[in-house]
């Protein structure tokens, strides 16, 4: 289950339910802050529990993954397109990546897919933004889940 976070600013322990449950994948929103592709956790993105930093274990109220969620060009409810920001823009990035991975590994279980998403996220650590640090942190989780 994918769950977008509530945008409640960068305070710790701001993930609401059901996104805070351990069987949901909580996705933080990133913003691109430099032309070289450097990302930081967006100020509007909720944060998890700082007591669980650096353990690479998903507990209640943990951010698991991060994806772009600021200034995303997307469909609008009037049939056109618009630029939007939010964890509701970040979560579809992770859902799409999961679908791409699963399409090549149709026999995988949910646990195997989740493990692969986590592995990929660890390759792109996010160190910018309030609460972000090296490794598993309460702001960006395991990191930026990407195709490559």
Walk me through what this model shows.
With 148 residues, the chain is α/β, with parallel strands linked by helices. The protein has a single domain, classed as Rossmann fold. The chain contains two helices and six strands, in the order E-E-E-E-E-E-H-H. It has helices at 87-104, 110-122; strands at residues 2-4, 25-32, 39-41, 65-68, 72-75, 81-84. The strands form two sheets. Strands 1, 2, 3 and 4 form a four-stranded mixed sheet that branches. A hairpin with a 6-residue loop joins strand 2 and strand 3. Helix 1 packs across helix 2 (110-122). The protein is globular.
Total count of helical runs of at least 4 residues: 2
Indicate the proportion of strand residues: 15-25%
Share in helix: 10-25%
- Structural category: alpha/beta
Topology, number of strands: 6
The CATH superfamily label reads Peptidase S8/S53 domain
| Level-1 CATH class name | Alpha Beta
Query: What is the overall pLDDT average?
Result: 88
| Name of the CATH architecture | 3-Layer(aba) Sandwich
List the helices and strands and how they pair.
Layout: E1 2-4, E2 25-32, E3 39-41, E4 65-68, E5 72-75, E6 81-84, H1 87-104, H2 110-122
Helix pairs in contact: 1-2
Entry keywords:
single chain; 148 residues; Rossmann fold; 4-stranded mixed sheet; two-stranded antiparallel ribbon
